[in-house]
Structures are given as structure tokens and as C-alpha cells.
Design brief:
Blueprint (H helix, E strand, L loop, with lengths): L4 E7 L5 E6 L2 H9 L14 E8 L2 H13 L2 H9 L2
Antiparallel strand pairs: 1-2, 1-3
Length: 83
């Protein structure tokens, strides 16, 4: 299916940013909020979805996930702000 793979950025309750990959953004955000997501987001709830990007392949999405994770905090903030 086209654009079925997503990279997302969450802002955690402590102000930190978390980047992840999923095929269902809504479900994944709910998992993070319920404490069932990544270990990093547990104890940092609630989380807020602040950015998503969609791709037609898992490989493209995971490549972009790694690119975002490598960005500085300032660069991530510019990405989230749409700059």
C-alpha cells in the first residue's frame, strides 16, 4: 500500500523528543501514552504527536527515522516547527 509506513516525532511530558517508526500512527501514539511503547517514553507520558512523515516502503521510513534521530535537538525543533 502507498504511504503505509510512517516516521513520527513525539514530544514527551519532560520536553524531550522521541522519534519512531510505525504502520499505524494513532495506535502507536496510544501505546506510548499507555506506557506500552518504547522504554524511553515510559514514565515520560503523556506524549504529544508533533510530526509525521509517510513513505511507501519500510526501508525508506526506517532510513528517515535514523536521519531524524541523528539530528541535533535544534534541528529536530526546526523540523517539528516546519522550517
Amino acid at each position: 500500500m502507498i504511504d503505509d509506513h510512517h516516521v513520527y516525532v513525539l514530544e514527551c511530558a519532560d520536553g524531550s523528543l522521541y522519534t519512531g517508526y510505525t504502520t499505524d500512527v494513532e495506535r502507536r501514539v496510544a501505546e506510548h501514552d499507555a506506557g506500552e511503547g518504547a522504554k524511553y517514553t515510559r514514565g515520560r507520558t503523556p506524549v504529544e504527536l508533533v510530526h509525521t512523515e509517510s513513505f511507501d516502503s519500510r526501508s525508506a521510513a526506517t532510513r528517515r527515522e535514523h536521519e531524524i534521530k541523528a539530528l541535533s535537538r535544534a534541528a529536530k525543533e526546526r523540523l517539528v516547527a516546519g522550517e
